[in-house]
Amino acid sequence: MAATDTPPLPSILLIGCGKMGGAMLQGWLAEGLAPSVIVDRHRDSVPAPHRLVRDVTDLPADFQPDLIILAMKPQKVAAALAAIAPYALHAPVLSVLAGRTVHGLTEGLAAHMPPGARPLVIRSMPNTPAAVGEGMTVSYAPPQATPRQRAMCDRVLSAVGETAWVEHEDQIDIVTAISGSGPAYVFLLAELLEDVGVGEGLPPALARQIARKTVSGAGALMQQSGTEAAQLRRNVTSPGGTTQQALSILMAPDAWPATLRAAIRAGTKRARELAS
Ligand SMILES: NC(=O)C1=CN([C@@H]2O[C@H](COP(=O)(O)OP(=O)(O)OC[C@H]3O[C@@H](n4cnc5c(N)ncnc54)[C@H](OP(=O)(O)O)[C@@H]3O)[C@@H](O)[C@H]2O)C=CC1
Ligand SMILES: O=C(O)[C@@H]1CCC=N1
User: Fold this and answer.
1) 182-275 CATH pick, 1.10.3730.10, 1.10.510.10, 1.10.287.90, 3.20.20.70
2) Where are the domains of the chain?
3) Average pLDDT of the chain, as a whole number
């Protein structure tokens, strides 16, 4: 348990502990997690009292999780549903899979349950800053989810960052392309700033240092000040100065505004393709 007196997070059955599942688990372990089972064929170990299982076919029959979390690639989920279904008779399922719908996952699990039985599936889109407690997760719960089930998911997700909920499931696909993938866009910015700095003649170590600290420092300023992003941008932009000159290129309608819109629409479209 963590240093505080708060009760541990519920026990989870986490299936898939790669980049995203691993990021969330790092945050949950730091917070304090009731004895849980982690399924991943590539992970070496998990700290006691948690148990590591290599494949869903080896799940311990005696384990009764409070919450099942699906965090494998969308293309890998179908093969695991039969093994997960018995656990989903007694615990809600939280999916972080891009694209996969509540309906599709519910039907997929129900096909391996006794007639009439239905699992409860909640769909979320987290991001990897969860590893350091700075994640952003947006979730959708179907109408049949109970307040208790929603609250349990929110507690687990808010342990690794901020949470929000949407009323319409298809909004999760847009969220996926913005905050789910978004850390990659920000890391790309850091990569490009570094590359350009080197290309323009800076020593590589200095280019790396200023690129990384500019991105992380700007993020920290935005978080701590609470000031609107546009105002923070204006605060850097001296009339007739260097920033204005550079932004006149980046903010041209056919530059970043159009490029980012096209990128996010492409990501959203891909999320919708991954539904089936
Ligand atoms: N990465 C990100 O930033 C984000 C990812 N997501 C979602 O999270 C999910 C996971 O993505 P990511 O973490 O990047 O993927 P990874 O491939 O890094 O992690 C998934 C892990 O689960 C393992 N796995 C899958 N099925 C099984 C199984 N039946 N038994 C044992 N191990 C299994 C995989 O092994 P193997 O490769 O051998 O199958 C892999 O190690 C995806 O659905 C993605 O859409 C959501 C938000 C952000
Ligand atoms: O690239 C992907 O499909 C996943 C979903 C959001 C971030 N990574």
Assistant:
1) 1.10.3730.10
2) 12-175, 182-275
3) 96
- Written as six digits, the tokens of 222 are 């935005």
Give whole-number Cα distances, 34 to 1, 88, 247, in Å. 8, 18, 49
- Residue 108 identity: G
Q: Please tell me the distance between residue 20's alpha carbon and the centre of ligand 1 in angstroms.
A: 7
Yes or no: domain 12-175 corresponds to CATH 3.40.50.720? yes
ipTM of the complex: 0.99
54 pLDDT above the threshold of 70 = yes
Contacts 24+ apart (CB under 8 A), 183-187: 183/127, 183/128, 183/129, 185/260, 185/263, 186/215, 186/219, 187/215
Q: Which tokens belong to 63?
A: 């384990």
The model carries a pTM of 0.96
Report CA(1)–ligand 2 centroid distance (Å).
Answer: 31
For residue 270, what are its two tokens?
């891909």
Is 18 part of any known ligand binding site? yes
Pocket of ligand 1 (CB under 6 A): 16, 18-21, 39-42, 55-56, 71-74, 76, 80, 96-98, 125-128, 180
Ligand 1, residues 13, 53, 73: which to mutate, most atoms within 8 A of Cβ?
73
